[in-house]
Specification:
The chain has ten helices and 15 strands. The protein has 339 residues and is an alpha/beta fold. Strands 3, 4, 5, 6, 7, 14 and 15 form a seven-stranded mixed β-sheet that branches. The protein starts with 5 loop residues before the first strand and ends with a strand.
């Protein structure tokens, strides 16, 4: 097919004072850059909607791996697409190949050949490669070093990471898996579809409910939320428990906070008394985890041992409202836009 001259992009129209809404984004027709040496032109099929976007479009973001976006700039993030053309000096990627990369939120992306990951032939579900659950896998295998027979708590269990974290824990040998979510309907799905032993909907009696779900306490916590849920969970840890902090949704989705902070009250004396480790997880600190996760995830999907809960929003016109829908908890599992 001839190379297109223009393509649609989702750009930041204005920096939001609180949580971003559709009015803070715009769909723009923009020129497609000409390919130079070592570049590929990719027609995106799907791209990921992820909580970190709130931080990227926030004026208060600090010490984030990527610089905050400015008005007029195009959003970015994980995407799946088809190579439609290659520039000079590209020999190992052919037109028609499916690849993943980080230039989502646009119809056509110009990407360096070394910045894409080829989708393996026969992959059971290429869209699943947009999942960010490698963080849960890395947290459980590297930070927590989950041992068979242990009890695991996953906060924010109905999100893109949490909906897979409990399944991963079970496949790695956990004896009991407990989750939290703010939706009773999602709690039922987590139990019925994803095999959670118990799911707690936090409320005024959240501490008691979490305690009842695991009377002997928790050996491992995969925390996607922070805030009050992390405070409560730490009170229920067992001796030698390991806590892996993967996300900070309570801060990112709080309209009163700038998007780059998530304060939590922690009883440090309790951590000392029970020898609890509390560590934050970043993929860049653990080389090889992403590749290992992709291989194991594909094998588990192929064998029917794991589910990939996700929602697809059809059409670029849905993209400006997608982040708001994620913040409002309208969907179950991973959220992607189909271009």
């Amino acid at each position: 097919m001839p190379a297109p001259s223009t393509g649609r992009e989702i750009r930041l129209a204005a920096v939001p004072a609180g949580l971003p809404g559709p009015e803070h984004f715009t769909v723009t027709e923009a020129p497609v850059p000409r390919l130079t040496s070592g570049q590929l032109l990719v027609r995106n099929r799907h791209f990921l909607v992820f909580p970190g976007l709130r931080t990227l479009v926030s004026a208060g973001a600090k010490d984030f791996p990527f610089p905050p976006l400015k008005p007029g700039e195009t959003l970015f993030g994980p995407a799946l697409g088809e190579v439609v053309a290659t520039g000079p000096d590209v020999a190992d990627v052919r037109p028609g190949a499916l690849v993943t990369h980080m230039q989502g939120w646009r119809e056509y992306a110009v990407v360096g050949a070394g910045a894409v990951h080829a989708v393996p032939d026969g992959h059971p579900d290429p869209v699943a490669l947009l999942s960010t659950a490698s963080a849960a896998y890395g947290a459980l295998t590297r930070l927590a070093e989950l041992r068979p027979g242990e009890t695991v708590l996953v906060t924010g269990a109905a999100g893109g990471v949490g909906s897979l974290a409990g399944q991963i824990a079970r496949l790695l040998g956990a004896a009991r898996v407990v989750g939290t979510t703010r939706s009773p309907g999602k709690a039922a799905r987590l139990r019925q579809e994803l095999g959670y032993d118990a799911v707690v909907v936090p409320g005024d009696d959240g501490s008691g409910s979490l305690a009842e779900a695991a009377p002997d306490g928790y050996d491992v916590i995969v925390d996607n939320v922070g805030g009050e849920q992390l405070t409560t969970a730490l009170e229920l840890t067992r001796q030698g428990a390991r806590v892996a902090v993967v996300g900070a949704l309570s801060g990112q989705f709080d309209p009163a906070l700038p998007g780059g902070s998530s304060p939590t009250v922690i009883d440090t004396f309790a951590l000392i008394k029970r020898s609890v480790s509390l560590l934050g997880y970043q993929t860049v600190d653990h080389p090889g985890v992403e590749e290992e996760w992709r291989e194991r995830f594909a094998d588990w999907l192929r064998a029917g041992q794991i589910a990939f809960p996700h929602t697809v929003l059809p059409g670029m016109e849905r993209a400006p409202s997608a982040l708001q829908e994620l913040q409002q908890g309208r969907h179950f599992g991973t959220l992607v836009v189909e271009v």
